[in-house]
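pinning this so it doesn't scroll away 📌
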Amino acid sequence: MGEVEPGPAGPLEPPEPPEAPASRRPGGIRVLKRNMKRNGSRNCLNRRSRFGSRERDWLREDVKRGCVYLYGADTTTATTTTTSSASSSSSDLHLVLCTVETPASEICAGEGRESLYLQLHGDLVRRLEPTERPLQIVYDYLSRLGFDDPARIQEEAANPDLGCMLRFYGEKPCQMDHLDRILLSGIYNVRKGKTQLHKWAERLVVLCGTCLIVSSVKDCQTGKMHILPLVGGKVEEVKRRQYSLAFSSAGAQAQTYLVSFETLAEYQRWQRQASKVVSQRISTVDLSCHSLEEVPEHLFYSQDITYLNLRHNFMQLERPGGLDTFYKFSQLKGLNLSHNKLGSFPVLLCEIPTLTELNLSCNGFHDLPSQIGSLLNLQTLCLDGNFLTALPEELGNLQQLSSLGISFNNFSQIPEVYEKLTMLDKVFMAGNRVEVLNLGVLKRMSHVKHVDLRMNHLKTMIIENLEGNKYITHMDLRDNRLTDLDLSSLCNLEQLHCERNQLRELTLSGFSLRTLYANSNRLTTVNVYPVPSLLTSLELSRNLLECVPDWACEAKKIEILDVSYNLLTEVPMRILSSLSLRKLMVGHNHVQSLPTLVEHIPLEVLDVQHNLLTRLPDTLFSKALNKLNKLEQLEELNLSGNKLKTIPTTIANCKRLHTLVAHSNHISIFPEILQLPQIQFVDLSCNDLTEILIPEALPATLQDLDLTGNTNLVLEHKTLDTFSHITTLKIDQKPLPTTDSTVTSTFWSHGLAEMAGQRNKLCVSALAVDNFAEGVGAVYGMFDGDRNEELPRLLQCTMADVLLEEVQQSTNDTVFMANTFLVSHRKLGMAGQKLGCSALLCYIRPDTADPMNSFSLTVANVGTCQAVLCRGGKPVPLSKVFSLEQDPEEAQRVKDQKAIITEDNKVNGVTCCTRLLGCTYLYPWILPKPHISSTPLTIQDELLILGNKALWEHLSYTEAVNAVRHVQDPLAAAKKLCTLSQSYGCQDNVGAMVVYLNIGEEGCTCEMNGLTLPGPMGFASTTIIKDPPKPTTPSSSSGIASEFSSEMSTSEVSSEVGSTASDEHNTVGLDAGLLPRPERRCSLHPAPTSGVFQRQPSCATFSSNQSDNGLDSDDDQPVEGVITNGSKVEVEVDIHCCRGRDLENSPTLPENSPAPCPEDRSRGSLFGIRRQNSVNSGILLPVSKDRTELQKSPSTSCLYGKKLSNGSIVPLEDSLNLIEVATEAPKKKTGYFAAPTQLEPEDQFVIPRDLEEEVKEQMKHHQESRHEPEPSEEDRTELPEEFDTAL
């Protein structure tokens, strides 16, 4: 199956010269027919089953050429098309080579087909018009998804996996026999009437809906048909004939048909089904989403149909069962034709006088005919999601019309015909283009009480006169562009929604006001006059209010007050003393104290989280003058994020309290809440608790106790046993003992935490690859499926592989990131047809564009998952939230494409996101094209936080960064973020990933600028070695670093420190490592032409003949952090280097040498080295005095100074023993340390006696081979010890 064999019906052979297609047949197509082997898991073709090399060459000549996969119909099943195609393993498949100009008619002519059919997302199937161009349809589809490159579009169009989103058929892929309400059918002997005047004859009998249809077998439906209505009739057994039934209709002139069946099973089946039909009246037919172009003929003979649902089909006008024939439904009252792409209003529908309900939404209408005024019985008319700009005056004749929906059209003002439709009490005009609201027009519509103008372009209001409007009671103005709103003329206004505008001032009438929702504005003043005596709910969160309005304090019936996320500095005493208030939300303000209560109040929920409270009034929970507790009815109390040190002991008087949240304070004494009879949830995490006083018996209702983050709290075994019955007990786990040997300095490390919350499944997955692409970068991702867990798991397993493939094809971060998301969208296959997933992907790689930066971070996302970078302690958002509420541009795009946005701000009632991976059936409203941002990483970048929607809904960027900045363990940091979000009320799945960054030039380990490696006499100032010997072991010149940032091979480490390993290639000792070698690169500066990725070992291995544990004496104890392995000692060391500083006591430069430049002082350092463990032990190596001849390289400090994991540089002067350097370094606790490392002179590697002569001869031979003058004796001074420690 490697090569493609030409099909028999191909109208064109593949061109040998490129001009052959056009010369043989216009349009140039070739049909390749074969039975393709299928992959059952993906329901697509195998990659090896594609066309051959000749076809590929023909495609490469022009990007406008391509391939269309033409699937054969599968009639073996009567289920959905997706199931039928998946169940067949031998369906015919034709590969049609064509161009974007090839019409469907030409492909049909070559295939011998009548029509082509297009299926989108495994769902609906529509017939292509002869002039439509299939390949152009595919190209347009891919372009709208987000592909930009024409060559890539051509490649994607030829991918068979695309069939899960877009597929062409040569025949209609499924049978529709079950759609016309045929319950039973068969050929039986039939006799008309109960008498024997008629003879038995063979007839086709069909039980359809509520009718029995008898017709000739030969002519079937085209001949004479006898229709017997069964509603109210009878089904009786014929006693004189075996297995026979008598079907009778109702009424005075009832007719009867006798049907004789062949078997008892058929007789019983017909009797059961007919009995149901006779006894029940079936009046509703649902044929939605069945790819119908016409109504089945049998349906017209069902006399009882009153409601017909044909939503999401492709109904035609002029067809045998098209819309023009609907007048045959004599009793039809309800008709749903939404989402049929009719284009124009079917005028003949106006001839169905019985219609009372008509739904024509989303059909692309630009106008309505005047004949619509003849539907006098019409009560409900839905025209949402069209392109209407005006309504005909004849619509005013529909005096019974009580509901008219014209949302998401193109109206610029309220139609005047509303004034004639006196039965209408609601104006539904959401999602139009109204910019000016004229209150005078609404005043003339005295019958209108509800006005819905959300998601318009409202900017101003016009008031014609001062006379008030006494009719409007409900107004919805959400998601507009209003800056000031004065509705004081609406004196009977009861409810107002004005969220997500730009309001600075709001003025209302308070005579009838009951509920006010004005969240997410810029309000500084809210005026309501008179005082709203009927007000029960007031929500003013996320504004700029500095105080609670006075009129709100005087409202006598207010029950809910939400003023969180404002600038309040105090809570008025009148509010806290309200006798009607049940719920008070004042979190995220600047409140410093609460007033002292005097009387009993019925408050049930008090939320004062994230304020500046230092103490609570001592009498807050005490008894009032009437001997009742002041907060006796308090059920929920949230004190988190303040500066409280104690909670008053009188809280024990709150007998109804079931939830106490007081995390992130300074509470040191456990509050007396374990005696409350109804306590269920207690969160005291991140405090300063030291002990817990436990009563004799805990309340049986206690379910959740969170004590994490209390570092000084120690729970005894007895206490833990007491808490054993609690469903959820959260305490800090004791850290596992670690040694310095396990501490490694890396560029990044991550921690992941996922919590299911109160849901029974976890729909969040994460991707973490610290060593991506053989170690040159890292990839982190977060995937949130909302209610499905399948897509997050699929993306977790596949997205990294897709990114790796795309990185190899393009170096442009925008291109390969966008293609990664689009290809992952395609690879979801059938699972992505109905399900969707938010996705976030972060890719860290060496910055090839800017050599001054070490790494760059590229972030791409769709949906609601976000990434935040902590730079210098400040949060830097890197993602974009694609939701209708937070992205006005995306909301406008969805509106322009005529999607229906429900009142809860969801596209078609499904999701609030406008871009997702998956959900292909919501195309083109939901797209997979991601938002992409790139930023170079600097030394100021501390960490990266990835989180899903639930995390960022409950945590701000600043709060999340501040919460984990000083947490050393990334896993503990991630868990802390999840715990915080849950303590703030998050009950959904929450996921957080924290990536600690250690990026900076001090982490460089490469030889960048051609530094000449020193020989035995130090640096050679002028000597150039043309043919340096090849290293015996692989170096890190491939430019790849593993998880330890940058490593060196074992032989490199051994040679550089002067090890005398017994291996043959290491017997040369120190001098072998000082020979010139190819330039070494690190992850910060990868080699531009690196070939094969090689991971280098992260430990140095030394051999010693002194003792098994590598020590000089058996009396010495093993050094902490050193792992012994037989006669070898393996030390996990950091092989990083950094740019050193000038030594304070460096040798004086000779007179003839130029003065060092400032760049030399900052980038290069000279370290003296004394060889040991050799015959020349104790002799100092000279240091070159000519700095200008020293080529600057960051690897200098790696060769002549050891950089510890904490950032310090240890010069290798008295000893080159890396074991000493690694073991004597202090433990890294909180960043860098300033104390210098003290070297132990006793711990040294000593050359065995049997190797001393050999090493001496090799050292002497090597010194004589280099023609360099010996330095003077005064130059042989030992350089003092210096450490490069960060502040």
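📌 and the second one:
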Amino acid sequence: MVPLRKIIIKTITKTGHEDMWVEIQAHTFRNWVNENLRDCGYQVNDLSTDLCDGVRLVALVSSLQKKRLKYVKRPLNQHQSLENVTTALNAITDDGIKLVNIGSVDIVNGNLKLILGLIWSLIVHYQFGSSKFPPKKMMLAWLKNVLPECSIHNFTSDWNSGIALSALLDYCKPGLFPDWRELDPRESVQNCERAMRLAQKVFNIPMVLEPEYLASPYLDELSGMTYLSYFMKELSPGYFATLRWVQSQVPECNVKNFTTDWNDGLTLCTLVRSFGGPVPGHKNLSRRPEDWETNQEQGVNGGLRLGVEPVLRPVDMADPEVEHLGVMAYAAGFQWLKKKPPPGERLVVNIDTKKARVNQPSNFRLEFIYPEDIDPSLIRVEIIGPNGPVPCDLELGPDGGIGTFIPTDVGMHELIVYNEDEPVKGCPYHIRAAPDRAEKIMFSGLDPCSVGSVVEVSINSNGAADSILQVVAEAPSGRELHCPVDRDGNAFITTFKPDEAGQWSIAIYYDDEHIQGSPFSCVVYDPHAVKLSGLEGAVPQESFTFTCDAIAAGIGEVRFDVVHRGKSIPHQKIEIKPGIYRVTFVPPELGKYRIYTYFNGSEVKGSPFKMMVTPDGKPVPENQKKNSRRDKSPEKLEKKTSYSPLNASFREEGKENRFNSIDRINKRPPGSPEINGHEDFSHLQIAQSPRGVSSIQNFELLKSVKEVNRVNKALISNRDETDAVHSRIVSRRDVNVEERGPNLAAVSVRDVNVEGRGLDLAAMGQTSSFTVESQDIRADDLTVVINGPKGTTIKPRVFDGPKSHSVTVEFSTTHIGEYIIDVLLLGQPLPNSPFRCFAYNSQEIRVGNIPDGVVGEPVEFEIDGSSAGSGNLEILVNGGHVTSSVSSLGGQKFLASFVPHQASLHTIEMKFNDDPVPGSPWTIMVVEQSVTPGKRPSVIGDGVRHIPARRQAAVQLALASYQTVSDVKATVLGPNKRTVPHNLVNLYNGTCEVEFTPTEVGAYVVDAAIGSMKVYGCPMIAKAYDASLIRVSEVTSGRVGQVCQFRVDAGSAGEGQLEISINDGEVPNQVQVLGGGRCLVSFTPDHPRLHTIDIKFNGETVPGCPFKCKILDTSRVSVSLKSLELIPLGEPAQFNISVDSNSNAELAVAVRGPTTDPPVRVTGNTQNGLVAEFTPSEVGPHTVTVELNGISVPGTPAVCKAYDSRKVVVSQVPRGIIGKQVQFTVDAGGCGEGNLEITISARGRNVPTQVQPQGSAKFIVSFVPLEAVDHVVSITFNKEPVPGSPFTCTISNDPGRVTATGRALTAASILRTSTFQLTNISGSVDDIEVNIEGVPRNL
């Protein structure tokens, strides 16, 4: 048993010190009353007596309400006093203030506690604001958010030391009280007095509370709230401090208050977005009052994700009568957050193709740009198909992942990826799902194919001579095509190309006789024969019907997809007679519609067909179609400025000036092909024949990836009568060429608008872009080819833009120079294509030392732009108020100069193509001619400099001859506005220095003055950095000629210059800025040797340097793995390795199995070659890797597929009866991948066989026997007999059926008697009639 402990609960009351807190409160409230009576000529000395006659109370209420009240100015009796007090109280209640338990008599009688309660009600309403929320909560929320270091929890003890009040002053005006952290809390009264007097002097805040009372442990809460309310009421110092901060974060919102400017929620959502918080649909937020609360909810939820707790409810913030304090307190909660990109910009969606197939997986990739700011559990994918949501499987890792979905309906699918409920940039993506080619109608004979495809037939020769094999293809019209026959090993190969739709007959003759199963039928269809008509006359919201004629297309299925604004429109298809269809749909609105049309899964010629929906159903006249391509004049190309900057054009030698090329001719290069359409790739598919052997390859559909003509392959084997088995393998590969109508392309080209900076200028290593706008345009309609200098080709990223009817093209340049951009719409070049874009690198602008100056004398400095490329250089001195000039020094180098006209700090800004050049802006000191820098106190050196953190830094000052170090007063403020300890050290020749040690990364402000005169050059900015905080990702080994990459993260290291050198600068490298101080470094090694990577930050070597990167030439090793595509289980598998014997290297060979890794044995030598051998012990893929000194050689890793034919399970083959179907099953689910071959024969002749897939590599095999003889069933897997093969199926006669048997039924000798037998005859011989027809003799 646990003994009970005695628990003592203590409560703290004001008993014993009640007189103290009442005194403090009465004093504070009296001072507050007097502040509001100052303009009335009245003063209150004692609240309990001076308010009794009601005169001062009426004056107070009149002052607060800004209106005059009638009252008795000199009351002579209690009745008149009561009348005055009643007038005041009525005015108070009429203004919405609820008074409880207080009446006129209480005030006339001088009840101090009730009077204090009345005054507090006035303070709350008129000082804090008329809010329905407790002011204490609002005030504490704001104070906690603006003073996070002070840990404010109350209005009493937390303010006794005076430190929190001093910090509040520094918040209201940064730099006003910079040393508040160094105050001694034991000197509380002095601290309070100093802070309160400074607040009175700077902000005119009255001292309604005495410093001794603020420092008192008996300070009552209401007194503290009353004084502090002066810092946060409307138009107060704290109000403006928070407002200035909000304005700096969201300048686009033009925020001027904390009430009406916040009602619609847009300001809050913009503020949340600026810190990287999620705001779903932020671009489409509505300003309608009925949507304000929804907007506020979006912003509040985004703030919660950032860690900012709301002060008010969304409905309260949307209230037009909202009081400022709650909104201001909430906004202040964002002040100390670290900014990060919005959720929708922390990752990108990569889609390889905008096309998919029904019932086939479609993939897209997610790449995390800022993986440290992404929670994979908050990523979701939404795919909306024509008939609703489509499931999506998302697999995510630390750096991204893959999404997979399977379209089940033909039509447009909208893909939206959300991160923290915010759509990822670029979404939604639209993916068009075409019909699955597996949905084609089943035919007998060879699988159907399209007109223009090539049918290839392979016939097993079995030693037959070439001259006695003939192949004839007969067209539906009766026309015969004699097909050429070629020898291919032990087989004959023949091909034919059908040119008309219908059923073809392929006859194969051996010695002038049909082989078994000949002739073979092949149904041919023509998708390009499908025609659409009646596409005019559609109006919105009314049923519209058009007609499709597919009669000439042959046998097959026609499918439609009506698309408008990226969405599929529901439609109904009715076949009114064979091959003629009526399609009906209701267009929801005006605009352009696309009708995608498919036949047997292939898109027909002219698809998508375009139709316009107009108000009256009439076509749009040509003269009303606008060409939105705007002419560009030189005036539009040049950037207009209100100042007179230096415009120096840099260009490559031998090339025209980039900015004078407005009259350039943009035409297609000679010889470039015109593209009238684009190709759509179909898939390799299992074909089955009703005769002989069916072949199942890999048990699944395989996709074709080559642009070739459609090929149907059939392997048909024929043997002599004496052969026991006849086999035939049928497979096919289809590729369909999709065409777009030429009229469609022509119309779209005229209506196109291309614009964007990326058409003219591109910053090297950064993403450049331009947009293509036209009604109903999609990304897959465009072809963009970008060719750069030195024969480089850039692959752009083309995707649907944020605006409807627009496509965005993004690309990154790798070299300085001219790039040719070809843009084609549906194969047709756009107006003015190709475009000429010039890549530049503003980081290559080199600026010489800019010296301090003297009024009236030129300040000169040199600029080297020889390596920067073409562009426009702008120089601004003091924002353009000081004129500058430039002269050429040759070799793309220039001398810039300006003449200052007044003594002050001068700022020089420099931009190249609107990008800041390294080091900009510069600050120099300009002094009067009579006062040189050596005769007046000034900063020695640059006004802005970089200093290493945690090391002593010094700023030197030059003093006048009559000044000493004791005259100098200096301050150093750190990044958090804290005062940094420093020392003043006297040097020599009239100089001194300010020494301090920066303890953290950030900007330090060094200010110095002598008396009331500031030192020239002050305040000086010293930016502390820490190279040890730079993180470099692992630098892995690489190959010659292959790009090597690594990442550098300098986000926490501070500001500075990052220098990267590989092999002392011998190997060029490219740096791509990723944002947040991170970059991706790439280089391509040319020689196999150890590469050293040196990284410096502000000239300081980064820890870990130099980094080593081993580069190998793996071309010295070659591996032959062709024979290992399929390998049997339990048998040794070998492959050859050739190695250059003249080099020393470490070669590693490994094989990774599905669950266990088999051992590998390597024999041989480098002179004669190496042989690697391993034995797979389990079914499944085995990955073979060959590494040279840790680097994979070309061709590896490669995947080999192990199989086990012994695991094929065949059910019992039952006995059969003539004319009735025999059926059994084959289960190949556990044997791996491969080819399953099934052959059934009787008397050496193949029997037609049907194979029906059941899924999971299980099949039902059936045949109908025609003879009462044993049938032989042979089953092989990858040419290996399965267990029990061949099987015997006994076939018997049907007792009720006459049967004929005997050799003479199949072969007979001439001039000899041949016989056969008839059995199961129920009647007499006279009832039997036998007819024998022979070949007539040629006379």
